[in-house]
Known about the structure:
This protein is of the alpha+beta class. It folds into 3 domains: 3-109, no CATH class; 138-255, DNA primase DNAg catalytic core, N-terminal domain (Alpha-Beta Complex), CATH 3.90.980; 264-393, Dna Topoisomerase Vi A Subunit, Chain: A, domain 2, CATH 3.40.1360.10. It contains 13 helices and 13 strands. The chain has helices at residues 3-6, 12-18, 76-81, 95-109, 144-147, 165-172, 179-185, 229-238, 272-276, 287-295, 310-323, 336-349, 378-393, and strands at residues 27-29, 32-35, 52-54, 63-65, 73-74, 188-189, 208-213, 219-225, 249-251, 281-284, 300-302, 328-330, 355-357. Strand 1 and strand 2 (32-35) form a beta hairpin. The radius of gyration is 23 Å and the shape is globular.
Amino acid sequence: MNVDELMPQITLEQAAAYYGVPLPELHRAGAETRTRCFLNCGRTQETGDRVLAIKTDDPAKTWHCHQYGCGKGGNLISLCDLMKPGPNASGRPRADRFKEIAADLKAMAAGVTRQEGTSPAAPAKAAPAEEPKVNVPIAKSENERARALVDLHRKFVVDPAVMPPAASSYFRRRPFLTPEVCQKWRVGYLPRDVGGEDRSGGTMRGKIVYPYSSETGELLTWFGRDPEYEDKRRKWEAAGKVEREPEKFHFVKGFHRGIELFGQHALQSPDVPPKLASLGLILVEGPNDVIRLDTLGVPTVALCSNAITREQAAKAAQIARRAAGGVVTIFLDCDPEGEVGMKQALGYLAQLIPVRLAWTSNMHGGKFKGRQPESLTGEEWRQLFAFLTDEALGNCNHPYS
């Protein structure tokens, strides 16, 4: 069977129906169809409703997931692998799994509408009520090993001079991550081996580690950024994307990041409302954006994603009403993925609260195209601040000016 000849004959809807997978709402965006993730890809929470980008008119149905920390992609074969019941191959089926999917495509092309055993004709059993998503502070965890990680930051290295090359380069490219700033935010590099038998923080070793705190400042979890990610990704792409895609950020399984906002604890200070009165609650993508803007005196919160969840939108609106003049300012990365997330965030937030944009690739004469908030210089922030406060107040009479 030649799967390259079969794939153009199959539609996304046909493949999903064959495996009994209900498709979420599909949104057409140019040559792509955007939708919420419906794949059996190991995700632990709902995604935004436009994170999957599928070229449904492409004979191979190429696709890519823009969910923060995911980045999976492929063609119709990989989509089928992640929809077909049974253990999958993370979208890279081989051997018997590949043969089974090829046989499925042949059946679809022949007009078979449902794989045996996946018919939804019988009434579906009522799904059990979903338990509320809650993140328990590490100090209150039932797991003794988790409780022992409260002071993990004491093992961090914050001096680039004594880090391995990849980690050192990561910090040197971000000069705002000084030792003092790292200590304030409890951020640093966790060595792979500090000697002895201490292996606490195992999945975070060799990574740049960040804390995720609750609104009241209690530590909820640690998460890590691989400083070797860019190099690993280049090698993965050069090898034909055969193996599993490298992981950029690693979150502990079971942590519900979609109900939290990174940096939320720093908004409890009484000096925050005056600072944000004319700026609104500034919403960025990643932890480095929050930390960089904090060094410029700007309180912000991050999605830790380029897609917002309904829970995050509701939380952002609540915080904005309390501490930011009742407005949310979207400040996601000024790149194609960030602008897709910006449009989704606009849709979610505008239903709850007034919302505006700090930048897009076409605003400000296009000077910020491709940029991230973490890369801003002090002078560039002052220009953006003047734009935002002029728009809101018609002047720059504000603590930052």
